[in-house]
Amino acid sequence: MNSSQKFAWWNLLIIAAILVLCGATAAVLAWKYGAGRAFDGLPLVGLLGLLGVSSAAFRKKRRKGGVTFDERDNLIYERSLTVAHYVLWPFLVAACMIPCVILGTRGTIPVYVLPIILGGGGVIVTVVQSVAILVQYGRRGEKS
Asked: Are 42 and 26 in contact (CB under 8 A)?
């Protein structure tokens, strides 16, 4: 397994663990204090900052004169980013237009919705990019 695949698996693991943690926290808070307090567990999403560690942790060590990324790795990375951004734009359009359609032109949305949309977009890009990397390298993770 090369560093790109480790990077992708790490990202998926972190996102899954934090979403499970946030969901469990929200469920416990809703059960114990009522549905209004369920959103108090939302700041745990800040732990997604651990995704920033992945790029530094799985960067190939640069050797003098050594190859860090070959053409295939670069192509896979670029394709995965392209796929991720193709998925991001419909999400952002829907996130902006659905409240407009539901609430009308004079409706308002709470301010806390905006960071949720931004964070959701970031999670979607990371998940799609990671899955695209893993799919392009194949099931067994062979680098042929």
From this structure: yes
Question: Is residue 73 assigned to a domain?
Answer: yes
Residue 144 included in any domain: no
Give how many domains the chain has, as a whole number: 1
**Is there a contact between 45 and 22 (Cβ–Cβ < 8 Å)?**
yes
Instruction: Output the tens digit of pLDDT for each of the chain's 144 residues.
Output: 787 888 889 889 988 988 888 888 888 888 888 877 777 777 777 777 777 776 666 665 545 555 566 788 889 889 999 999 999 999 999 998 998 899 988 888 888 888 888 888 989 999 999 999 999 988 555 554
Domain that holds residue 113: 3-60+69-137
